[in-house]
Amino acid sequence: MTASLTVFGDALEFVVDERRLILHKTWEHLLLSGAAMAIALVIALPLGLWLGHRHRGSFIAVNVANLARALPSLALIAVGFVFLGVGFWSVALALVVLAIPPILTNAYVAVDSVQTDAVEAARGMGMTDRQIITRIELPLALPLIFAGIRTATVFVVATATIAAVAGGGGLGDIIVNQAGYGLEGVIGAAICVSVLALAADAAVGLLQRALTPPGLRIESRAFEADVTTVSRLGPSVSKVGGHPS
Amino acid sequence: MIPLGAPLAAQGPVIPDFGEGSDCVVENRLFCPDWVRDNWSGTLQPALIEHVKLTIIAVVIGFVLSFGAALLTHRLRLFEKPLVVFAAIVYTIPSLALFQLLVPITGLTVATVEVALVGYTLLILYRNILEGLRSVPPDVLEAARGMGLTRRQTLWRIELPLAVPATMAGLRVAVVSTIALATVAALVVPQGLGYPIFIALREAFKTEILVAGALAVGLALVADALLVLAERALTPWNRSRRAA
């Protein structure tokens, strides 16, 4: 037991001594995660909002989420590697595929489950479709949309670690290279990745709180406490994505 | 165990050595059926069985722990918040990191893998079981009390059966994501479908990557389907309602 504690001590020492390496790898990690999240958001968010607005495609939205849960991220990265070779973009693409389902499904469910009364009232007031989306549905759906973005972010940051096995860079580079950095390096980088994931989760959580209209804040907290029964589509959609690997 | 060591990029030029094989294998085409045939009983099937074992052990232990914790907090709400926060923090730690963080404590053993996999099931299972227990309508509980059922009888005959759907929903998510996660376990112990994937990644051998990956996905889908059937069998009242 004391031996194991020494390892953790050595690991922290490694992080301090090699802070330039750690910072460099953290930057790579964030760049990879950020690129994947940006692409996934651009694709999944408008699609989910539009499908939810039209109350269409629930079958697709829900099944995409269920299927995605069964995709092992390691296998996905390996397959990306098979088709695109070693490098940033092959890994980024795999991460995009992993990030889309939680964003898409949550956006769909969020907009789809906005009370029809509110939408009808808005239409009665003479609002156009675009106004209904931006002024009624989007604000009301925001907490749930952000829950999806949050899941996807943790997912991507976590999986970017595995990216190292396909030459994607990031902190995983250190973790999978015990021969080069020693056990203290591996443990040190593992600590950094864990902190990074928790920090990313907290950051999106804060952003969510800041962007939620004040009138909805209490409800949004209720949502956090009750993720398992997110919608009438059943608990299967709730914690979309399973574990972020 | 072959050390999985350096990432591809750091290894310099990879000289492919696929041993003696057919033209397809030597040329490393996308999919070689003959390689799959030759390596099914030696590599793929054992990996698949190990994978199932890793998953079952993790989910069973995770379920027992979550079930106990849910029963406890169902009565004593005081413990709910700390348990959820703990489980959520464990859940957020990336698997590759958690496996490595456990290595100094439990070594390069199956125990390391199982501790991590169990840890990841806790949040989903605990929350869903508790949610299920709480979803019982108050009317039903009053009726049970009116019929003279004790607290224990109410739990076993009313609350637990009614909690089955939410529990099964949680179990489905837990099983499917444990199957996906167990592939990463190969970095610690040479077991499960992740091992052939890691080996094949080093040699960039396409067939093995695709087949092992497909097996993992297939296993998850089959397990999910079996759990859906199990849920139907366990909740006959829902079945009749669905038919009506």
Structural commentary:
The complex is a heterodimer of chains A (245) and B (244). Helices cover 78% and strands 0% of the residues of chain A. Chain A has 245 residues and is mainly α. The two termini of chain A are 27 Å apart. Chain B has 244 residues and is mainly α. Chain B has eleven helices and no strands. Chain B has helices at 23-27, 33-75, 80-92, 95-106, 110-134, 138-146, 151-162, 164-181, 194-203, 206-234, 236-243. At the A-B interface, α1, α4, α7, α8 and α9 of A face α3, α4, α5, α8 and α9 of B.
Q: What is the 3D form of chain B?
A: elongated
Summarize model confidence as the mean pLDDT of chain B. 85
Level of helix content of chain B?
over 70%
Low-pLDDT segments of chain A: 219-241
**Helicity range of the residues of chain A?**
over 70%
Percentage of β-strand residues of chain B: under 5%
The major beta sheet of chain B can be summarized as: none
Radius of gyration of chain A: 20 Å
Features:
heterodimer; A: mainly alpha; elongated; B: 244 residues; 11 helices; disordered N terminus
In short:
The complex is a heterodimer of chains A (245) and B (244). Helix content of chain A is 78%, strand content 0%.
